[in-house]
């Protein structure tokens, strides 16, 4: 899991992952060993970890490029977002849905609420990284674009702002779930600053 966290943070920071995908040959189990939940849709204690691995693999693929630069073409960014939604967001289990998640298992799994917010932070941090090149595009290049491209850029910038707000909301909820006091957990401080810098 440490390797996956390193890979995720590398791609969020715009760096090449230390360990390439070809070197990672470990396959995670589909459920926790010994799990006999009566409800087949019920998450287990490792559900969030498996989702993080899937998210990281796709994020590395979508946010990496051969020349080390991320796509700034709004049409390419939109296509990337659609794939991310189709392969990750639209396939999430009920307990980890981005909006209106199923909460009925929270009592049986005390860490589930925290895991949900941690994974939600990863989702919106990835979306922010996909959309970040839009705010780095030179003004003269934006002005030279045609009207449909300008409208698309405006829509994507709204999505960026919405993703930042969702990210900050999850950070606030996670901080509350962790006691609401000073905390050394790196996600809280890093992504709070990251979101502020993007705004």
What secondary-structure arrangement, pairings included, does this model have?
Elements (H helix, E strand, L loop, with lengths): L1 H11 L34 H17 L10 H14 L24 H20 L7 H6 L2 H31 L8 H13 L1
Helix pairs in contact: 1-2, 2-4, 4-6, 4-7, 6-7
Task: Explain what the structure shows.
By secondary structure, the protein is mostly helical. It has seven helices and no strands. The chain has helices at residues 2-12, 47-63, 74-87, 112-131, 139-144, 147-177, 186-198. Helix 1 (2-12) packs parallel to helix 2 (47-63), helix 4 runs antiparallel to helix 6 and helix 6 (147-177) runs antiparallel to helix 7. The chain is globular. 24% of the residues are buried. Mean pLDDT is 80; it is low at 32-36.
Summarize, please.
The chain is mostly helical and 199 residues long. Helices cover 56% and strands 0% of the residues.
Distance between the termini: 30 Å
* Low-confidence parts: 32-36
Average residue pLDDT:
80
Please write the string of helix (H) and strand (E) elements.
Answer: HHHHHHH
Major β-sheet profile? none
- Helix percent reads 55-70%
Strand content of the residues, in percent?
Answer: under 5%
* Structural class label: mainly alpha
Cα-atom radius of gyration = 18 Å
Shape: globular
**Helical run tally:** 7
Got a strand count?
A: 0
Descriptive key words:
single chain; mainly alpha
């Amino acid at each position: 899991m440490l390797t996956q966290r390193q890979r995720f943070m590398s791609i969020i920071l715009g760096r090449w992952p230390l360990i390439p995908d070809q070197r990672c040959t470990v396959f995670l189990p589909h459920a926790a060993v010994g799990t006999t939940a009566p409800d087949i849709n019920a998450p287990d204690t490792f559900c969030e970890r498996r989702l993080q691995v899937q998210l990281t693999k796709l994020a590395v693929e979508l946010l990496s490029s051969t020349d080390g630069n991320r796509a700034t073409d709004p049409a390419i960014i939109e296509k990337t977002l659609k794939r991310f939604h189709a392969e990750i967001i639209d396939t999430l289990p009920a307990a980890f849905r981005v909006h209106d998640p199923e909460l009925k298992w929270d009592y049986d799994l005390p860490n589930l609420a925290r895991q949900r917010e941690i994974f939600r932070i990863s989702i919106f941090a990835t979306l922010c990284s996909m959309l970040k090149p839009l705010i780095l595009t030179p003004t003269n290049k934006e002005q030279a674009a045609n009207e449909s491209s300008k409208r698309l850029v405006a829509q994507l910038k709204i999505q960026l702002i919405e993703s930042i707000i969702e990210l900050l909301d999850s950070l606030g909820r996670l901080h509350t779930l962790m006691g609401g006091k000073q905390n050394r957990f790196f996600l809280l401080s890093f992504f709070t600053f990251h979101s502020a810098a993007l705004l």
